[in-house]
Amino acid sequence: MKLPGHDAIARQADEHLVTHRVKLPREVVERPIRQVAKRLVMALLVLVATALVVYAGRDGYHDDSDDSVDLLDAFYYATVTLSTTGYGDITPVSDSARLINIFVITPLRVLFLIILVGTTLEVLTERTREEWRLNRWRSTLRDHTVVVGFGTKGRSAIRTVCATGLRKEQVVVVDPSSKVIDAATAEGYAGVIGDATRSDVLKRAEVDKARQIIVAPQRDDTAVLVTLTARQLNRSAKIVAAVREEENAPLLRQSGADAVITSSGAAGRLLGLSVLSPAAGMVMEDLIQQGSGLDIVERPVVRAEVGLKPRETDDLVVSVVRGHRVLGYDDPSIGTLQLTDRLITIVRATPGAQVTPGIRPLPGH
């Protein structure tokens, strides 16, 4: 296997060393600056309204300095009153001015404080609210899918799985790049920022409770380390990994991967098939694109099919999964279908169709 030296691995770890944290998808809200600007405008409007109310009833106020209240004095009084400073140099002396203070100025003061203090309280409570969301998310997360690496391979893989009925709330993306995680959360997935070769990062993604794990990093050596760590944390999860070099596939299987896809080799074979027959290449691409055209799916044998041969079923059967063996539809050792068999079939994709949960990975040939 082509693996870099220990120094290269250490450098890579240092480059990706970030404070790992969980980021949950959130609703689209206004920019914080715009929210603060709105509240400041509201506060200024309250201030102006208070000053105008005081100026309109200026005859009922007394100023210790010159015994008269002008527009500047009205704004000054509104400022010190709304901020609850209250120097007492300008005071309401008439009954009407005092009634206005009770029923108008005081509610405006409360509104002013709510606007300004509310912004501070919202900032202070944001961390608590986010922590509560994380705790609730961890307590309810079960049988989810963890995607390590949200590049082209990881993104395409999870979109294919979601096309079969998996909810986005059941997907957790792990990647060392905060920008990548931001992109994942923008699409509705939960994200964990950190190096997936570290067990504490995978634990934050609740790997020990995951049903399936997709390993699709940029490097083959990273894929090996991630697979080893994930298998150590979860013995029962289905792990599917992608590698660039064909010679590294056996090591991925030895590390605990149930299925290994050679990305460069698969793309090369599809290219070769398209050269020999462009139509055949189009059909193959259609088959691996879930949710449109033709889909290749795995399903259990129903009771009505027990005792039939693969070609006698209503669906187009490609292979039969019996135990740990994958048998071609024309394999004479199949005989007739059994209730414990599973069928690999080609079906016409229909909106809302879902693949039967709990599909087992196919062993490599």
Feature tags:
365 residues; alpha/beta; seven-stranded mixed β-sheet; disordered C terminus
Please, could you describe this protein's structure?
It is a single chain. With 365 residues, the protein is α/β, with parallel strands linked by helices. The chain contains eleven helices and 13 strands. The two termini are 20 Å apart.
Summarize the structure.
With 365 residues, the protein is α/β, with parallel strands linked by helices.
**Could you give the distance between the termini?**
20 Å
Q: Give the low-pLDDT segments.
A: 1-18, 353-365
* Average predicted confidence as pLDDT: 79
- For the biggest β-sheet, the strand order reads 1-6-5-4-7-8-9
Major sheet: size, sense and barrel closure? 7 strands, mixed
Q: What is the 3D shape? A: elongated
Number of DSSP E strands: 13
Which series of helices and strands comes N to C? Answer: HEHEHEHEHEHEHEHEHEHHEEEE
- Helix amount: 40-55%
Q: What fraction of the residues are assigned to beta strands by DSSP?
A: 15-25%
Radius of gyration, Cα only, in angstroms?
33 Å
Class of secondary structure makeup: alpha/beta
**Helical stretch count?**
11
